[in-house]
Amino acid sequence: MGNDPKKTAEGLFEIPDGDLDKGYLLGSKCKHCGTVSFPKRKVCPSCLANDGIEEIPLSKRGKLFSFSINQMAPEGFKAPYVTGKVDLPEKVRIFTVITGCPPEEDALSIGMDMEMAFEPVYRGKNGEALVGYTFRPARADGSQAVEKRDLLRCASSLVTATYYMYDSFLRICAPCISSFFNSL
Ligand SMILES: [Zn+2]
After folding, report:
1. Which of 7, 20, 74, 89 could make an SS bond with 118 (beta carbons 3.0 to 4.6 A apart)?
2. What span, in angstroms and rounded, lies between the C-alpha atoms of 180 and 184?
3. Mean pLDDT across the chain
């Protein structure tokens, strides 16, 4: 409280109590035709109504529509970094920085579940960290994202380690044991 993080932009999102976990994007919904927009608008882009537009919090999960690995970074960003578009259930497409995975093509796939997060995105002119929304690969149970690749890597290194242990047992220990028994 009273310790709100510095934001990358005003009017795009709220971070209640300065708690990044509670952050959400601010959209608008037209009461006439139901169209949801982000950023929020005063006039509905579908039916052009300029009344009955309400501010709504947007879903924090969506599906990856597209992404690209950026090799050149604007001031304040570190290259390479990932940007992309995420489709929310409200039928809104959000342009976003993507984090929580290495900036490599095979770290992401079109249509995968993504989860919104709030975190320092880049540095302002005075070097201060500015907090913005990002999306990252989501796990099915909604908990903090863990790369499927990481799990595979972990499993494969376990298999490798087990193999080498067995292999060195055969090469080193087994001859010792057999020679010990032979010497009896
Ligand atoms: Zn409308």
Report:
1. 20
2. 7
3. 85
